[in-house]
Amino acid sequence: MKKVALVTGASSGIGRAAAELFAKKGYTVYAAARSMEKLEAMATDAIRPVSLDVTDDASMRACVKQVLDHEGRIDVLVNNAGYGSYGAVEDVPMEEARRQIEVNVFGLARMTQLVLPAMREARSGKIINITSMAGRIWTPFGAWYHASKFAVEGLSASMRLELRPLGIDVVLIEPGAILTPWSGIAAQHLRDTSRGGAYAAAAMRSADRLSGIYEGRYITKPEVIAKCIVKAAMKRHPRTRYLIGFGAKPMVWIQKIFGDRVYDRLVRTFM
């Protein structure tokens, strides 16, 4: 019997690459996102598009029900849906801050809640949460994004302790800089939020540098992260976390080895 993977945020970037690789590895894949037009374009016998808005509980319940009604099982959940909202804490409207947490944290948590009964019954499953090196380091103007990713780190670690005795693994994938639309969205959020305010000059410089980093020639392609996701899903005993992609290991190691003050000076100089 084919294993079943449900991938959120699957219409582009890491999610799309992961969905396509799962299909090549013999999984039945439910590719979930808001953009059905993009999902339909990648549909095959092995990839089934399913509508999903991780800020809408009814949409999340319908998505999981559709998979379980058709397949009777979900072996892997890849919580990939998310985005980066950048801006100084003083400038970001609380409505936008709440949306950042709603998408990146509560959406992930709710999708996990919904698939767990079937995984518990099967006494097996993989919950793979796509976080970021941003869950272990920090940058100016990224406070709400970092807060969401730090939250996913803590949430995932606690779930790992709860679920391992039930045969369910929780894995964190912590990408560095990846060639996806993420950087353009984050940089534009920063420009829009900070324009004309007290932080405008520094924020515009940071937005330009953020865009520049993600346009570099050494930036990691989404397919590299997809291989890591599928590898973790297929391993009997996966690692608890995978720090992977451009800049991820050096940035985390610098902070860990040299401490906050040295790390802060480095980031202020660069950003």
Tell me the layout of helices and strands.
Elements: E1 4-8, H1 13-24, E2 28-33, H2 36-41, E3 47-51, H3 57-71, E4 76-79, H4 94-122, E5 125-130, H5 143-163, E6 168-175, H6 182-194, H7 200-213, H8 222-234, E7 241-244, H9 248-270
Parallel strand pairs: 1-2, 1-4, 2-3, 4-5, 5-6, 6-7
Structure description:
It is a single chain. This protein has a single domain, classed as Rossmann fold, CATH 3.40.50. Helices cover 54% and strands 14% of the residues. Strands 3-2-1-4-5-6-7 form a 7-stranded parallel β-sheet, with helices on both faces. The protein is globular and about 55 Å long. The chain starts with a strand and ends with a helix.
**Count of helical stretches:** 9
How would you classify the helix and strand content by structural class?
Answer: alpha/beta
Question: What percent of residues are in strands?
Answer: 5-15%
CATH architecture tag: 3-Layer(aba) Sandwich
Question: What is the CATH T-level topology?
Answer: Rossmann fold
Domain module count:
1
User: Briefly, what CATH class?
Assistant: Alpha Beta
Mean pLDDT: 94
Shape: globular
Radius of gyration: 18 Å
Q: What is the percent of helical residues? A: 40-55%
Q: What is the rounded distance between the termini?
A: 50 Å
Main sheet record: 7 strands, parallel
Could you spell the SSE succession in H and E letters? EHEHEHEHEHEHHHEH
Q: How many DSSP-defined strands?
A: 7
- CATH superfamily, by name, is NAD(P)-binding Rossmann-like Domain
Placed side by side, the strands forming the largest sheet appear as 3-2-1-4-5-6-7
Uncertain ranges: none
